[in-house]
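Tutorial, part two.
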Amino acid sequence: MCYLRAIMATWHYADANKQQFQIDESQLSSAVQQGVIAPNTPVWTSGMSNWAPAAQALSQLFPGGGAPNPNSGPPPIDGSGFVSTAGAMPIQSHVVDYEIFGDDMQIVEVELDPGETVIAEAGAMNYIEQDIVYEAKMGDGSQPNAGVMGTLLAVGKRALTGESIFMTHFTHRGGNGKRRVAFAAPYPGKIMAVNLKEIGGEITCQKDAFLCAALGTQVTIAFNKRLGAGFFGGEGFILQKLKGDGMAFMHAGGTVVERELKGETLRVDTGCLVAFSPGISYDIQRAGNLKSMFFGGEGLFLATLSGHGKVWLQSLPFSRMADRILAHAPSAGGKSTGEGSVLGGLGRLLDGD
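Running the prediction step on this input gives:
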């Protein structure tokens, strides 16, 4: 049973970022057909006591029902969907399902219900199914009421990490069913799926580790307060920080090792550190005595991690892999080794002629 309403009434609806819009009743059918209003899109009109899913409030367009109570104006939407609260609340992360495919060149396939959104770095998308639309936006969409200055400040912070100021938002605009969008790893390694709610609501990672996350995740930066870590930590003073209560996906090179520290101290090659949870202290210390530093082959400094929490490590940092490739690239002055046969060397001589 649909809600009783006046002819040609004005309807209010909200998108995934809790931004409110209004349209005439005559435009409802077109909005539903275009996917602007999905079954679980919050809607309200005069005569309704609260926001309700479109499928419940508009029975002539969606299956569902409900009963109205008179009210003078639309109540605010809270982070969970349709319950009236006083004042604005930060957006909660969308709940998304996922599956990771592959071994060394992995992709993560994120499953979206109607109205759900996942955000990703520009260029990370591998494929999308029908009914999913994507849009490049400034920022991560976690603070929809931040205003122009707040958005500019957020994207300015992202620019400091060398990342694009734009992020791509993928939203399921279809009427029903689940749809999937996949994101690919940029180089050989593993994709890490982390539930931020389970590790204290945030994670600090190297600046190029972030791949994608559920809408509501805040992607910002963390300045390293320790001078040693800033000058010699490989990542400088700036690390990336992900905040929220949903799923976030990061990428690391080679094999990923997850360690849990319970008051211990762990020393790591600076390039092999991927991320760490709250409660972990990060600093840089000298790698032994002068002889070990200069002739040990392990670098001059090591990352020192201590405290209580989780640490993620990678076996093959991209910088190390790139150095090896360049060192063996003949066009870059490296040696051509490993091809091995006389015919191979003769072929290269003939190509040079």
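Residues 1-89 form one domain. In part three we will examine how such features are distributed along the chain.
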